[in-house]
Design a protein that fits this description.
about 180 residues, Rossmann fold, single chain, alpha/beta
């Protein structure tokens, strides 16, 4: 079974995180919310309280995908976390998948991980996507990096990750089950 760590922080966009994670869980992917705040309860950008499964300090990089939801100042907290920075760089160097949505692809961009990749991000963050070719698509997978434009693309991103981690048939079946005909 595939495993995904979704990194959560105060000010994250709740739907970007939970929408993607919900789709993954429905497909049988193991998902753990990991707080970078030093405490398990975080407050999203719209005031929702969310309890993480684990603190960053409690994990090792045994996940297939490291996922960064966007939102502000959540993205800033992710960018500033030195342990997460090191984990993202090591994960990429080991040839493992990364995913980020909305403002959060800029975290990957700041680390040089989007260099030479097709990608997408929330409009206005393109200058922070070092060396990436951003065209404004909803969801883009280029090699081992999947990026999403924003909250409205959360289900698409979840389905894309299901396709990559489980199967295209599972993604199609799940899309029909959740009545998503977009």
């Amino acid at each position: 079974m595939a495993k995904v760590y979704a990194f959560v922080a105060d000010g994250m966009e709740e739907v970007e995180c939970l929408g993607v994670c919900d789709v993954l869980i429905r497909a049988g992917v193991e998902v753990k919310l990991v707080s970078v705040m030093g405490r398990k309860e975080i407050t999203g950008s719209h005031g929702f309280k969310i309890t993480a499964d684990l603190l960053f300090e409690e994990i090792t990089d045994d996940a297939d995908v490291l996922f960064l939801p966007g939102g502000l100042p959540g993205t800033d907290h992710l960018r500033e976390h030195k342990g997460l920075e090191k984990m993202l760089l090591t994960h990429a160097a080991e040839g493992k998948r990364l995913a980020a949505i909305c403002a959060a692809p800029s975290v990957l961009g700041a680390l040089g991980l989007t260099e030479g990749h097709r990608a997408t991000c929330f409009p206005g963050y393109e200058p922070q996507m070092k060396g990436a070719e951003c065209k404004g698509d909803g969801v883009v997978t280029d090699r081992l990096i999947t990026t999403g434009r924003g909250m409205g693309c959360s289900l698409d991103m979840g389905l894309e990750l299901v396709k990559l981690l489980v199967s295209e048939d599972t993604a199609k079946t799940l899309k029909a089950k959740i009545q998503y005909d977009h």
